[in-house]
């Protein structure tokens, strides 16, 4: 069964369009859906029937869907999350800092079930074309990881397993900040050497963040070498096109495009929101938003100087400093000490 959120397409309910055409023209045009797939817009009934839940939603929808699902979930269900990003509630007046919550943490808090996390360098179109793809399974349970591997692995999709769930998830979120930074480098025509340095410094900051903010967990630097880390980052930042990604493409490329536009002179008078609106009112780049939330946390802990790349991306996207300040802000990076 497949839960489809209540929304419209061509003045019809999307769920009805999918049922009638055996295709999702809004989010996966041109990809046929098997007759074996039962499409439903009732999350509670889909949840109640499921022995395995594959959860792949933008973080802004995570809470609303989990609240519907939690009362109907089997205690023995295998919950697999493909959602990338951070659930970051707005601070209240008494909060000293913003809480940053991983999607897996939110799933466990709401449902009481510890999910398996899957992240990696793959797109829907690539999978549909049977391109060779890799992904990383993050799970503290080998039994659960083996079951996910059995269910999802094919001759063209290879899955590796690590117990380092935290780094697998954080790579999926924080690499979007690096994609924006790489776009800024492109927009300023700073060259391949600079982009290479940006990638390394960004990976350094991701590693430091994992170790510092999640010190009680067994986070490992080697996880950055998995598909969820450097592989997925390369897939995005090596893109040379300025074309908007289409549905089923790598949407992380949108962060790269935003970075380019934030640094190009013709867009100097536009805010981040205005640049995003120029594409489509429904499009929101996750990189600038993640940088904003991470910066709020780091600022409250007086740690911004330890993460100059994360800080620079936020300040540039907020138009607090010009894009040309990227390199000066990295001159005394902690990685160079």
UniProtKB/TrEMBL annotation:
Keywords: NAD, Oxidoreductase. NAD(+) binds at residue 124. Coiled coil: none annotated. GO terms for cellular component: cytosol. Its EC number is 1.1.1.8. The lineage of its organism: Eukaryota, Metazoa, Spiralia, Lophotrochozoa, Platyhelminthes. It comes from Mesocestoides corti. It catalyses: sn-glycerol 3-phosphate + NAD(+) = dihydroxyacetone phosphate + NADH + H(+). This is Glycerol-3-phosphate dehydrogenase [NAD(+)]. The active site is at residue 175. GO terms for molecular function: glycerol-3-phosphate dehydrogenase (NAD+) activity; NAD binding. Residues 164-320 form the Glycerol-3-phosphate dehydrogenase NAD-dependent C-terminal domain. It is an enzyme of class 1 (oxidoreductase). Residues 12-144 form the Glycerol-3-phosphate dehydrogenase NAD-dependent N-terminal domain. One of its GO terms (biological process) is glycerol-3-phosphate catabolic process. The keyword Secreted does not apply. Belongs to the NAD-dependent glycerol-3-phosphate dehydrogenase family.
């Amino acid at each position: 069964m497949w839960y489809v959120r209540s929304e419209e397409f061509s003045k019809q309910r999307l769920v009805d369009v999918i049922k009638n055409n055996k295709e999702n023209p809004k989010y996966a045009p041109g990809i046929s859906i098997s007759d074996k797939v039962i499409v439903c817009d009732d999350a509670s009934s889909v949840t109640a029937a499921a022995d395995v839940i594959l959860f792949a939603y933008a973080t802004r929808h995570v809470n609303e869907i989990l609240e519907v699902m939690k009362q109907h979930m089997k205690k023995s269900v295998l919950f697999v999350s493909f959602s990338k990003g951070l659930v970051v509630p707005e601070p209240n007046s008494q909060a000293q800092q913003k809480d940053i919550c991983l999607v897996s943490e939110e799933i466990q808090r709401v449902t009481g079930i510890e999910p398996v996390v899957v992240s990696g360098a793959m797109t829907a179109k690539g999978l549909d074309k049977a391109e060779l793809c890799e992904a990383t399974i993050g799970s503290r349970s080998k039994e659960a990881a083996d079951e996910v591997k059995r269910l999802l692995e094919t001759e063209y999709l290879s899955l590796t397993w690590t117990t380092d769930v935290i780094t697998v998830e954080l790579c999926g979120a924080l690499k979007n900040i690096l994609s924006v930074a790489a776009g800024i480098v492109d927009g300023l025509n700073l060259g391949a050497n600079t982009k290479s340095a940006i990638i390394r410094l960004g990976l350094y900051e991701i590693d430091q963040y994992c170790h510092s903010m999640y010190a009680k967990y067994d986070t490992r630097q080697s996880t950055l070498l998995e598909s969820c880390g450097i592989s997925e980052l390369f897939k995005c930042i090596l893109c040379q096109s300025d074309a908007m990604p289409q549905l089923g493409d790598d949407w992380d490329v949108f962060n790269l495009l935003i970075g380019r536009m934030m640094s190009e002179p013709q867009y100097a008078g536009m805010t981040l929101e205005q640049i995003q609106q120029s594409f489509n009112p429904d499009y929101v780049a996750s990189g600038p938003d993640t940088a904003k939330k991470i910066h709020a946390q780091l600022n409250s802990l007086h740690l911004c100087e330890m993460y100059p790349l994360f800080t620079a991306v936020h300040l540039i996207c907020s138009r607090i400093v010009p894009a040309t300040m990227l390199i000066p802000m990295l001159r005394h990076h902690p990685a160079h000490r």
